[in-house]
Amino acid sequence: MTRVVLKLGGSVAASAAFRALELFRRGDEVVVVHGAGPQISAELRRRGIPVEFVGGRRVTSPAALAVVRESLVAVGAEASAALGPAALPLLGDEIGLEARPLSGLGLVGEPVPSRPAAIEEALAARRIPVVAPIAVGPLNVNADEAAGALAVGLGADRIVFVSDVPGVFVDGAWADRIEAARADSLIAAGAFDGGIVPKLLAAVRAARVGVRAEIGATEVLG
To answer: Is residue 181 within 8 Å of 194, Cβ to Cβ?
Structure first.
């Protein structure tokens, strides 16, 4: 049996649920981690709360964290509805998702590998945990980083990042694969920006400990 962590971007969380169901129906253990980036930003702007990112992480005040939680709960409910009765929505801070607080960003943390008992119990019961990336604190954590940390902590065989981006764009083309060392060099050189950066960093960390990592059609090699 293969254990797979599937990270679904907030813009595709419900529509991409078929990917999780496909894996689940063939017998894999599937953990879904979802974002809600577009929904959070839209609601923050509606309420007049500043939207600011540093290094792919959202600067998060107490007021912003309340919006983050509301938006994640809503997206988690949509994704769970699309997945059907096997889905089990979970809030990360309620199940022990761990993170190190980061200074200068407000209520934000960097996820560390953890193995929440609630996820293991759900998998044992043939459920699909649908995890909202809020860490104990509570702290807002990047969904890509949370997925990567859970993949390592849960001893996953595979992590797949599903978003509206088809893969990693390198040298004028979508790459079939990229070595971790080259990814590190390109990130350090500023070759990437925006949401691909935390995805690539999380994929590299997972790949280096033996988790097969894929960003769209691009495989990241350890």
So the answer is: no
**Domain 3-221 class, CATH top level:** alpha beta
CA separation for the pair 171, 179 (Å, rounded): 14
pLDDT tens-digit series, residues 67-85: 999 999 999 999 999 999 9
The residues, ordered by sequence, that sit 6+ positions from 199 with a Cβ below 8 Å of its Cβ are 7, 144, 161, 163, 215
- All structural domains of the chain with their residue ranges: 3-221
Cα separation, 30 vs 27, in Å, equals 9
Model confidence pTM above 0.70: yes
Rounded distance between C-alpha atoms, residue 20 and residue 48, angstroms: 35
For residue 215, give every residue at least 6 positions away whose Cβ sits within 8 Å of its Cβ, in sequence order, or none: 161, 165, 167, 168, 196, 199, 200, 203
Which amino acid does the sequence have at 69? R
